[in-house]
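ok so i was messing around last nite and threw this chain in just to see what happens. nothing serious, just curious
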Amino acid sequence: MRSSTKAAKNAAESATPNPRLKLHTPPPGQFGAHFLHLNVSTHRRTRLTNPTPDDLTPYEKKTRAQVHGNILFFFAVILLLALAWTLQKELLIIYVSGLFAVVLMPAVTRIRKLKIRNYHPSRAVAIVLLIAVVALVLAIFFTTGLPPVLSDLRNFSAELPQRIPEIVSRVKKLPFADKLGIDSFAQRAAGAFDATASYLFTSLPLWLSHVFDILTAAFLCIYFMLEGEHAYDFFLSLFPATERQRLDKTLKKAERKVSKWLLGQGLLMLVLGVSSTIVFGLLHVRYFLLLGFLMGLFNIIPIAGGVITIVIAAGVAALDSWTKMAGVLTFYAIYINVENAFLTPRIMRSSVNLMGLTVLVALLLGTALAGIVGALVSVPTAALITVFLEEYAVHKD
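result:
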């Protein structure tokens, strides 16, 4: 009984037409089962082919907007990189100007704190006074300090090939000197000195030929000091308010570290250069002006710079006598102890404490990218990057 009732029910359902099943009559001459179609609802067909914005859910709208934003951001970055590559010289000038403005601003602040009969210099007056002092120092250096150094360099490079046999004969008198390959080493040293001297003589006119770039950087530096605060506020306004305070704190920390490191390192270079020149002059070492200048200049490279210059100075002193060489080495040993025990803790106590390897890599990359200018700004740039890495990338336990 139940089976007959169930069979009757199935027959009734099969007799009821399905609203989604529509039988299309084929045109004359064409037959086939492919004319039997499912009449799917219009809403489902629309969603499968080309959904309109009104049919999208809020999540789908948000996802589509993110995809479009990422695509636009990608092409914007590509365009900016291409523009930066085209304007790399101009961007380098702007970066150097801004960096020197950051370094010189503490001096401007100190000048503004001076009190002369109830008068405090304004920012513009302080900048003018600072520029006058810097211009005076540079004029004295280029007119009185640099020409003797270049003269010593020229005489040293001309005299060195003639003094090589004497150097070799002196060194060969030392024990085990024959096993060290002194002759080949002396020839390579002479070639290196000649190449260095020729590079300095050929690069100096090229450097002086960029007078317009130097003047442009100087004027930009002045404008950065005058209107740098407004540009800084505009730069911060480009970031969300939640990140703005942290970025402001990080940038100010980087500014203090970079400016103090540069001023401290410059002071250490000046102290070593002046003291070396005085001591080498008292010892009657030839080319003492050149050697003192190199001692101060290469002091920007930790350890390696001092070792290279003291080897050169000791070698030049050994051309005259072993006594002068011993005097040069004794002076440098005393200076190293004084610098590590007294000068560095007081001058560099608030610096960014860059590792020697970091400085060497920064100088190498900066010189390869932008020559002398790149070497000039490479170390402060490394200090800036270090501050940002410590704030945003380093995870302290």
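not much to say yet. Confidence is low (pLDDT under 50) at residues 19-24, 30-48.
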